[in-house]
Amino acid sequence: MKKRFASLWFRHLKTDWMAVGHPQLRGIPFVFAISTHGKLIVNASNHLAEQEGIYPGLAIADAKAFLPSLKVINERPGLTEKLLHSIAHWCIRYTPVVAVDPPEGMILDISGCAHLWGGEESYIQHIVSRFKQHGYDVQMSIADTIGAAWAIARFGKENSIVKTDRQFDALLTLPAPALRLEAPVLTRLQSLGLKTIGSFAAMPRTALRRRFGHHLLLRLDQAIGHEDEFIVSIKPIFPYEERLPCLEPIRTADGIELALQQLLHAICKRLIGEGKGVREAVLQCHRVDGKIEQINIGTNRATAHEHHLFQLFALKIAQIEPALGIELFILEVPKVEEADPVQENLWGNRIGLDNPMVTELLDRLKSRDPNCDISRYLPAAHYWPERSMKTAGSVQEVATVDWQTERPRPTRLLSIPEPILVTAPIPDYPPLLFRYKGEVYTIKKADGPERIEREWWIDKGEHRDYYAVEDEKGQRFWLYRSGHYDDSLPNQWFLHGFFA
């Protein structure tokens, strides 16, 4: 597919933004000012100020002399970057690849996107009209290369579309600054009377390199398409993503469900064809007012089962606030894993965690309650009790070691052992009773000690002598003494777990 790029240029980005938030400024000339070497300089001016000859770089004192009624607003640090990133995120509704282009523009990779709006002409008209409705003065162009799109947007005919492979012809009549050249190079070109790109584009490359350096040739080649140029999107590109623009804004839950079904059908069809399944998925709803509503789901095992994924999302659709309407739906799948849907159907009667119905039930339980924490544990190659297990990444993860079954282990292990007061005879004898949370437990049966040493390659510390004990009511506990017996240490004993 042929690459196509669009360049957006906001001629009065900051002043337009200020006028949108403060309508009283729309009819008066005003500027943004920054302090440079102890002197206030115009950093941005609105179109009314420019009509009076006040442009960026002019001293505020001189500007006030030209126009005493000029309103001066102090520049906010980082304002330009914040505005560009905010607008770039809004533009994601038109293409998944958007990059900021300081100081007053951005680049869109629109390859394969324009047809969703009826072609490039409708695409460019739609975007420009939307920005103008919001109060922004913008120029836009589309071309095969980033350099050509950038040049035409700023120096060419307003809102132009350069036909495929015709960027060289479109560049010839443009001034030299359209190539994004450095100031010293532009000065040398101007002094030699080379004012347009066409006046030097056909000159021998060795002469151009000798007189103006490599950068001029690089920019020329990038604009023509002989040299590749890349952009860095503000948002990571997921390999599994589906987009659904809407002809009319969607405001109802039924409309959201229909859009979700279409997106799931497309993404699951693709995943099944590649033998993969969803582990995490995100539905983004881009509203007309520029805000984004989002819901996400997760699964315990990779699945491309449309109905099941729809049920998980359906539990959260009520959280979406469509407001004035949703104009774009994006379904992203940031995490996928290998899956075998054919085998799933063949062995649908499997029991336990291998049964898809069990994992789908766990998915629904977790989606109903965000605070529901469902975990599966696997044995880990450690003797120290707190380290002897780990959380499984999925229900299909296979244990690499066996559970330790030589000695009994409690069904409930406390994450942090709790200190207890113990009455015990001479060392190495099990305790006779212990006090835990104000209650005294008299021990009738005991088994131990089982000594467990710390792993010296991980940390250093005392060993533990564990006892499995049972009180007179039949309750069973897992106790241990830390280190060797020492009657000067009152808190040597701890409760670490409970048996069933």
From TrEMBL:
Belongs to the DNA polymerase type-Y family. Gene3D superfamilies: 3.30.70.270, 3.40.1170.60. Pfam families: IMS (PF00817). InterPro entries: DNA/RNA_pol_sf, Rev_trsase/Diguanyl_cyclase, SulA_CellDiv_inhibitor, UmuC. This is Protein ImuB. GO terms for biological process: DNA repair. Residues 1-73 form the UmuC domain. PANTHER family: BLR3025 PROTEIN, BLR3025 PROTEIN-RELATED. The keyword Oxidoreductase does not apply. Keywords: DNA damage.
